[in-house]
Amino acid sequence: MGAGILLIEDDAAGRALAVFNLTKAGYDVTAVADGQLGLDTLTTQNFDLVITDVKMPGLSGIDVLNAIGKSHPNLPVIIITAYANVAMAVDAMKLGAEDFIGKPFTRDHLLLVVSKALKHRALKNELNQLRARAGGIERPILSKSGQMRQVIEMTDRFAVSDASVLVTGRSGTGKELIARRIHARSSRRDHPFVPVNLAALPENLIESELFGHEKGAFTGAVNTRIGRFRQADRGTIFLDEIAELPFQLQGKLLRVLQEKTVDSVGSDAPVMVDVRVVAATNRDLEKEVAAGRFREDLYYRINVVQIEIPPLVDRPDDIEPLVRQFVGIFSEGRTLDIPDVVMSGIRAHSWPGNVRELENVCQRLVLLAPGDALRASDLPFGKTAPSEKKWHVDDIPLPAEGISLMDVEKEIIEKALRLQGGNVSKTATWLQIPRHVLAYRMEKFGIEK
C-alpha cells in the first residue's frame, strides 16, 4: 500500500466517499468518525498524513490540529471545511495546517491536495536529513539486507514520537548510529544530542556526570557542573551500556524519567528538564532484572519501544557495501581495488566484533596496501599462527590458598599494555575487548597509560 492517511470525518457518506477515492488511488486509509477517536488512533498507529473536518461533535478540527501539533509536530494535517468558512481554514493554516479543502470537493481536487502535502512532507524530511548529516549528528546507515531495512523502518517510525527507546544488540552493531538517527528525525533535532557511555565512566563519577554537582559538594568539586541531562535539555540523551549503571543510581534515573527533574549532587533545588532518553545495551536486561541487578520499574520505563540490531553474521548482504564504504573513507583519495580473494576472505569471517571489527579490518587493509589493490595476506584472520595458540585455564598453576581475580586481571592488563607499547587501542584489540571496556578497567585499577 501507499502512504498511510488518517481521515477524521463525522459525516458517514462523505467519509465513505473519501475513503473510496483515496484507497482507489493507492493510499492506505484509516477512517474514524470523531476527533477524540482520531487522536486515540494516533497513539497506536503511524500515519504520513491526517485529513480532518473542522466542524465535528466534541473535538473540532482545530482542536485536533492543535493536539497533533504538540504530539506529532512533523505530521501534516489537511483541514476540510465548507466554502463559506474559508476564513476558518485560513486561521487553521496559521496554526500549522498543511492545506485545506473546501466542501464540496471533487475526487481530482482531493487527490491533488493530498499528493502535494505528501510531497512537501518528503522534501522536509530530506532537508532535515541533510541538515543532520551536515551537522555531524546523523551518520549514514547502509541497509542492503532485509533485516537492516526493517530496523531502519522501525527507527524512523518511532523517531517521530517522544517515547523512550531501548536499542539492543551485540557490541559493534551500530547502536549509537540508530540513536543518532532517532534524534535527527525527531522534533528535537535542533537541540542537543548528548551521548554517554556508562561503561567508560568510573563508578564514583557517574552520578556527577549524569546529574551534575554543586561547587564544593565533595572533595575535588572545585566548580559547578550541570551534568549530561541538563546539557541535553529539549534534546536527546543516549545512555549507552545502560546495564552498567550502578543499582543505587537506577532509582535516581527513574525519578528523572518520571518527574522530569534532576537533583544535582549537593543541591536541594531540583531542576526541570525535558529530555528524550534512548538507551542501549548488549546484555539481556530481562535476565539482569531476574538476577536483581537491574530495577524492573526502570526497565519498563526505558523499554517503551525496543529496536534490536542483528549481528553482522546474520546479514551477510551488508558486508560488501560496508567494505566498499570503509575502504573509500580510509583510502583518502587513493583508488584501491578490492580483489575477489579479499572479499571472499572477509565474507568467510564470523565477525564477532560486528561492524566495528569490519571497520578496523578495512582500515588495516588500506594502511598496509602498498599499491593500488588490497591484499588477502593483510587480513588479520585465517590460518592460526603459532603465537596465536589458544590457552586454557589448565595451563595456569593455581595456588591452593586461592588467588585474587582482580589482581590477576590488573596484572594481565599491565603486561598487555607493555607488550603493545602503551597503546590502548592495540591493547584492547589484543585482549579482544572493546576499547571503552579497557579504559574503564584501567580507571578501575588505577593503571596509567
Please characterize this protein's 3D structure.
The chain has 449 residues and is of the alpha/beta class. The protein has four domains: 4-131, Rossmann fold (3-Layer(aba) Sandwich); 146-308, Rossmann fold, CATH 3.40.50; 314-382, Helicase, Ruva Protein, domain 3; 393-445, Homeodomain-like (Arc Repressor Mutant, subunit A). It has 18 helices and twelve strands. The strands form three sheets. The chain has a five-stranded parallel β-sheet, sandwiched between helices. A five-stranded parallel β-sheet has the order 7-8-11-6-12. β3, α3 and β4 (77-82) form a beta-alpha-beta unit. The longest helix has 28 residues, at 107-134. Mean pLDDT is 85; it is low at 383-389.
Topology diagram in text:
Layout: E1 4-8, H1 12-24, E2 28-32, H2 35-42, E3 49-53, H3 61-71, E4 77-82, H4 86-94, E5 99-103, H5 107-134, H6 146-159, E6 165-168, H7 175-184, E7 193-197, H8 206-211, H9 227-231, E8 236-240, H10 247-259, E9 261-262, E10 271-272, E11 276-281, H11 285-290, H12 296-302, E12 305-308, H13 319-331, H14 340-348, H15 354-368, H16 405-419, H17 424-431, H18 435-445
Parallel strand pairs: 1-2, 1-3, 3-4, 4-5, 6-11, 6-12, 7-8, 8-11
Antiparallel strand pairs: 9-10
